[in-house]
Amino acid sequence: MALHFERSEFDERLARLLDRMREEKLDAMLLFAQESMYWLTGYDTFGYCFFQTLVVKADGTMTLLTRSADLRQARQTSVIDNVVVWVDRVNADPTLDLKNLLDDMDLLGARIGVEYDTHGMTGRVARLLDNQLSSFGQITDASYLVSGLRLTKSPAEIAHVRRAAELADDALDAALPLIKAGGSEADILAAMQGAVFSGGGDYPANEFIIGSGADALLCRYKAGRRTLDVNDQLTLEWAGASAHYHAAMMRTVVIGEPTPRHRELYRACAETIAAIESVLKPGHTFGDVFDTHARILDERGLTRHRLNACGYSLGARFSPSWMEHQMFHVGNPQPILPDMSLFVHMIIMDSESGTAMTLGHTYLTTEDAPQALSRHGLELIIS
User: Fold this and answer.
1) CA-CA distance, 100 to 305, in Å (whole number)?
2) What are the residue ranges in the chain where pLDDT is below 70?
């Protein structure tokens, strides 16, 4: 079996989930998030682009309802013993198959939690599901139950997070010699992704961000490549991925002589991250991290150039995003606990002057000060 963790690790995760289900008085959970299924059982697939769900009962029994294409995938990559296949057909409604399965599992009239807030649950599926189950039992939104359990990492998970960070560093090392006047974004991107693959890593859950010139001010991947000018700027956001666990990094590299605005924005980024490190530890919340970010940048007159979030939790994630639900934004009460892997990023995009500056990497929280997982410092990179 292609498992990345010992069976005892999965047993412990199931026990934690069952404890939370008892607290929420849930008789069963319907897991639609692929990362939840992977975390709980090791099940590894991109088949969540179609209908599938993992039913977890309060007694610990689990049944996967999926398509025939994923039957062997589940057998090979997970600890799931019971797999039921719904049949592709004209006008298929797999939520009816699910209702019948739940009935067979003696869950009629049960209180059932559902993961609605996930890319594995389309709007159409949600409507069909609610239509089938509205009179079957008591359905409640439990979108963040497993997500919350994934926040803190076990030692085995942390080993993958550390390896992911090493791969992210390898990607930057591969890119730096190519970042120069006349350098190609295509070559840079190929070198970075190639370094992760060569190191035994995975595809990331979303595309690497790469943009130069005016495109350095973009925070998302887009199609199209350009060649770097003698004086230019290049924004990169990427992640190493090991067994789907991510460690992200972000940099804006200046090609040629930095402008005074580049240096000014870099100083703001560096000062803010240094201040955040003092609150990125137990006794503080995710909201405290954002407040630190906003306070320092706003004091520098950068309110309109900053974002409304400055990072998020990382873990084992699947397309289309490596971001976890828990983000550093205003008012987030989520406590910072030991053994969280958290990506802190400073993103300042000055559209008036056309200047970009970003800075960030992944931390592992401890009982006290956070540990930066990158072997690279946060100095301004000038090529």
Assistant:
1) 53
2) 1
